[in-house]
Amino acid sequence: MKNILTYSLVILITATSCTEKNKEQTTSKNKIQQSVNPNGDSELAILMREMFDEAESIKQQIANGKPVKLNIDHEKMLTAHATEPEKTASGQYKVFADLYLQSIKNLESAKAKQMDSLYNTMVVSCLNCHKALCPGPLVRIKKLQRL
Question: From which domain of life does this come (predicted)?
């Protein structure tokens, strides 16, 4: 009986330490987005999720009357490996990407009165690109809009 208790305690401690280690890894400041695709995600898919998270943060910053602070390099969308590379190699993608990047620059330098309008312009640039090239996340992106 004593051996069973000792063995059970060792297993419990091991399992708990592994769980704590995983929690630390997922809650670190530089956390890596977890794959939602069973075949793995491309660099661009992961970057787009980070961009979505940052857009939610920007939306909150604007709602709180704070200046916009960007934490990721949005220009990586021009070079990140895509799930379907032929789409990002197209001229159409490059135009959409340039429009998005310009909307981000405009938002960074905007005055308080312009924030809502420029934020919505950024979201619309996301929607337009996704309507044309990758419609999967449209419902999620629409939730970013400020009214």
Answer: Bacteria
